[in-house]
Amino acid sequence: MKEIRLHGRGGQGAVIASQILVNAFVIEGKYGNSMPFFGFERRGAPLSAFVRFDDRPIREKTQVYSPDCVIVVDPTLRSAVKVFDGLKGERIAVLNDRKAIDQIDLPESMPESVNKVGIVDATKIAIECIGVPITNTSMLGAFAATTGWVKLDSIVRSFELFLNPKLLEGNVKAARAAYEAVQVRELVTL
Amino acid sequence: MSIKFKVDYITPIGKDLYVVNTGDWRYQRPVTNRDKCRKCGACWLVCPTNSRHALATHYETNLDFCKGCGLCATECPARAIRMAEETRE
Amino acid sequence: MVTEQVKHTSNAARGVGKVTVMDGNKAAAYGALLSRVQVLAAYPITPQTPLVEYLSQFVADGALKADFVEVESEHSSLSVLHGASLAGARTFTATSGQGLALMYEPYNRTPTIRLPIVMGIATRDGISPQCVWGGHQDAINVRDAGWIQLFVEDNQEILDTVIMAYKIAEHPDVLLPVNVCYDGFYLSHMADRVEIPPQEIVDEFLPPYRPTHQILDPDNPMSIDPLTPNELFMEYRYKHLQALQRAKQVIADVDQEFASLFGRGYGGLIEKYRMDDAEIAIVGIGSPVGTARVAVDRARDEGKKIGLVKVRALRPFPREELVEALRNVRSVGVMDKNVCFGWGTGVLFMELRSAMLGVPKPPATVGFIDGLGGSDITMEHYARAIAIVDDSANGLAHQEITWLGLEEE
């Protein structure tokens, strides 16, 4: 079983992204579930959502405290929330940032907590493809490319179930663009 | 424990079980002055047992179910109804 | 590894349906849809709100041929269903927390007038301190109103149990309303893999509702729930209680029939997990049972002979079934997501203790309270609980009740 934690802000679609991700795993014949962290539902407030997937049914009904991967939908969150807490296993971080991967100011401790980083300017892609800075679908494209855990096609096919039909085309474009654009780097491990 | 049931029903429903004879409760009865009655129907409106009915000349009481509450007498704008002692004759 | 897991064991291929992803509220709505409910009335309240939206959408799209009555309160929603059910319709509603509180008066009348209404409760913790989050207190507080109360563990079980609930409720030996209680947020808002059973097999399993015990019919007039005095009152209460006891057998039978058609069974009143050679056990109810399965697996890997008993039916209470399931264990830990005021324990703990009274050599019982007001029952909390149960089995000193997560480090 692998565990994923998404960090976003209310209104950015992180919870929908977590549901799309579950559907993508199910399309591939796996089991998965996701739940949001149930806080105060306010636009702009930091929130997280938890995804698990496996080849066998998922029994856990609890939050994710030690994810194999974190997806950070909003670049400003890294200063507000400890987004890298508890990483285990492959220790992957998929980040939304406009900087190039060699310019990014990752914290000194990153190599200890994160093993592999995927960075994409999801905000720019979202504005180009959808017209609004809603980065959830772009980040799913970046997630598929960085982790290799799920096919981009499964993610894109899952949009239909969760997104307004009018928004489908732009979001598919955004996910594909982010899939291509994401820069991936393995950090020095201890 | 064996229980002797009173009814076959499993639910509290009223069919032949409860015919409450409200006429039995009456210790005073409405008496209508047909000359004063203006046939406005106020008594008919307020009667809780629907015991007032219209005749050609005035409203009268069906005593089968009248419980003698006196609402009609109180509400009659023409003061055409008075409550008399029930003697059950 | 999964020794006594009853799910997905049958090879009933006909009942295999389409696999998709949905949250718990949608699973409940699909249960109502597949049961071909005819009248719906519901008022939105967190965390049940999306369910009302899903049902409205089903009706608007023509997928569900039902009358959806838009009401101004929960008191009205259940009262509308009273009329509809008395007229012979299959009906569905759902609520949570404050909504259930406002529904209290018609809620108590529903089982007495023996209406086979099915109602979801997306469980929400007590009304105060002000809280929208999960907890079992709302459903627990009305456990003695005379409904059947089934608690479920995941979204698939929500969908399946709504369908089973009609079969139980409408059974001539029962004729009682059923609550399908699913954890607010933890299930209501959890997206999960769910298989939608084929409509034609559901139709085969669940024929249309044809009331015979009472019906509003102009040719055969009757009044419902008139003043019912003294011994007659006692007689109806007695019959009600007997029906609730008879429901035990029906719940078990319906579960078996469901499993034979759809390949998924849930054990009826209780489910035993890895109990065969268990020396200690966890007893749980609702969605925390899922986490408990993994905690039990891990403790087994460490060499502990531990099992799990999941309580599905809180009402009727599976007294004999629990005694039998726990006959050979030395100590039992009960995980409550509720409190029992006046006893200082959880309700499941208190009722399990009562069930064990008079049993020769009963197991020690220790209680755990966790998950109130949306707090997370973590794997670490279960590990701590299992350690305490182990202590009690070995005769070591331990507390009777532990509030997990409130303990000092």
Write the topology of this structure.
The complex is a heterotrimer of chains A (190), B (89) and C (409).
Chain A: E1 2-9, H1 14-27, E2 31-36, E3 46-54, E4 69-72, H2 77-80, E5 92-96, H3 110-113, E6 116-120, H4 122-129, H5 136-147, H6 152-162, H7 168-181, E7 183-186
Parallel strand pairs in A: 1-4, 4-5, 5-6
Antiparallel strand pairs in A: 1-3, 2-3, 6-7
Helix pairs in contact in A: 1-6, 4-5, 4-7, 5-7, 6-7
Chain B: E1 13-14, E2 28-32, H1 42-46, E3 52-54, E4 59-61, H2 71-75, E5 81-85
Antiparallel strand pairs in B: 2-5, 3-4
Chain C: E1 18-22, H1 24-34, E2 39-42, H2 49-61, E3 67-70, H3 74-86, E4 91-95, H4 97-102, H5 104-112, E5 118-123, H6 137-141, E6 148-151, H7 155-169, E7 178-183, E8 191-196, H8 199-205, E9 223-224, H9 230-262, E10 270-273, E11 280-285, H10 288-301, E12 306-311, E13 313-315, H11 319-325, E14 331-336, H12 347-356, E15 364-369, H13 379-393, E16 401-403
Helix pairs in contact in C: 1-2, 1-7, 3-5, 7-9, 10-13
Provide a concise account of the structure shown.
The complex is a heterotrimer of chains A (190), B (89) and C (409). Chain A is an alpha/beta fold and 190 residues long.
Characterise the protein shown here.
The complex is a heterotrimer of chains A (190), B (89) and C (409). With 190 residues, chain A is α/β, with parallel strands linked by helices. Chain A has a single domain, classed as Pyruvate-ferredoxin Oxidoreductase, domain 3 (3-Layer(aba) Sandwich). Chain A contains 7 helices and 7 strands. In chain A, α3 links the parallel β5 and β6. Chain A is globular, with a radius of gyration of 15 Å. The mean pLDDT of chain A is 91. By secondary structure, chain B is α+β, with helices and mostly antiparallel strands. Chain B has one domain (22-85): Alpha-Beta Plaits (2-Layer Sandwich). Chain B is built from 2 helices and 5 strands; from the N terminus they run ββαββαβ. In chain B, strands 2-5 form a two-stranded antiparallel sheet. In chain B, strands 3-4 form a two-stranded antiparallel sheet. In chain B, a hairpin with a 4-residue loop joins β3 (52-54) and β4 (59-61). Chain B is elongated, with a radius of gyration of 18 Å. The model of chain B has no long low-confidence stretch (mean pLDDT 90). By secondary structure, chain C is α/β, with parallel strands linked by helices. The two termini of chain C are 33 Å apart. The model of chain C is unreliable at 1-10 (pLDDT under 50). Chains in contact: A-C, B-C. At the A-C interface, α1 and β2 of A face β1, β8 and α10 of C. β1 of chain B pairs antiparallel with β9 of chain C, so a sheet runs across the interface.
